[in-house]
Amino acid sequence: MQRMRILLAILLSFSSIFAVATASAQDVAQAQPGAAEVEKYINSIRTLKARFVQSNPNGSVVQGTLYVRRPGRMRFEYDPPSQLKIVADGYQVTMWDIANRDFGQWPIGWTAASFLVKEPLSLSGDLQVEKIERQDGMLQLTMTQAKKPQEGKVVIRLGENPMVLRGWTIIDNRGNHVNVSLQDVQSGMQLADALFKFDGPDAGAIRRGGN
Predict the structure, then answer these.
(1) Which of 18, 32, 190, 201 could serve as 129's disulfide partner, Cβ 3.0–4.6 Å?
(2) Is 25 within a domain?
(3) Which long-range contacts (CB under 8 A, 24 or more apart) does 29-34 make?
(4) Does residue 27 lie in a domain region?
(5) Residue 168: beta bridge partners?
C-alpha cells in the first residue's frame, strides 16, 4: 500500500500541470532560449525504452523499465519483487499492485508524466518554464503551473549533443521530491501493442489478493 501511495505522488501531484497550451514554439524560444529545443525533441520521439531508477521521499529506491509510444501510451514496469505496474493506453492510466491489493485508474491528462506522451507537447500557456540551466552538457528545465505555481514544480533533465531525456523530478507543495533517472535510453524501436494494455487480473481480484 505504501509503494502505491508513493507512486500516486509521482503521477497525481501535478494533476493539470501538463494541460493544453496555445503559444507557438517561437514564443517559447523568445521567452526561454532552450525550451523550444526541448519541445522539438520530445515531439520527435515516437517510441522510447529506458531503464529507470526512482528515488522516493521516504528514502526507498526502486528500479524498472519504462516504455513510451507517442501519442498517449506509456508503461512503467517495476523489477521483482515488486508487482507494481503502471500503463497508459492512450486514454487512461491504470496502476495496479497485486502484492499490496491496490488498483486505480485516472485520465491520462491528470498525470505529471504525461509530458512524455502528449501530442503535441507545448511548453507554454498553462505550463510556465520558470528557468533553464545548462551545465556540463546537461539541460535542465524547471516548470510550474502558470495559474497555480504554489502547487509545486517539475524539473526535466536532458543531455545535449545529442539531446536525450535523462529524467525528471517532481517537487510537491511541501517540498517532497520524487526523482526518476533514466539509463540506457533507446528510441525508434517497434513496441508491441500489448505493452500498453492492462494485462493484470480484474480489479476485484487484485483487491482480494488474487493472481
Answers:
(1) 32
(2) yes
(3) 31/124, 31/129, 32/123, 32/129, 32/131, 32/132, 32/141, 33/132, 34/132, 34/134, 34/139, 34/141
(4) yes
(5) 156, 180
C-alpha cell at 117: 506522451
Q: Rounded to whole angstroms, how far apart are CA atoms 116 and 155? A: 13
Q: Report if residue 196 sits inside a domain.
A: no
* Backbone dihedral region for residue 67 (phi beyond 0: left; psi -120 to 50: alpha; all else: beta): beta
Spatial CA neighbour of 132 closest among 18, 56, 20, 39: 39
Distance CA 82, CA 3 (A): 9
Q: Domain count for the chain, please give it.
A: 1
Q: What is the pLDDT of residue 33?
A: 61
Question: Residue 57 is part of which domain span?
Answer: 2-185
pLDDT digits (tens, 9 = 90+) for 191-207: 999 999 999 888 888 88
Q: Which CATH number covers residue 93?
A: 2.50.20.10
48 vs 113: CA distance, rounded Å:
14
C-alpha cell at 168: 525528471
Note whether 87 and 103 are within 8 A (CB): no
pTM of the predicted model, to two decimals?
Answer: 0.83
The number of C-alpha atoms within 13 Å of 2 and in the hemisphere containing its C-beta is 6
Check: CB of residue 87 under 8 Å from CB of residue 93.
yes
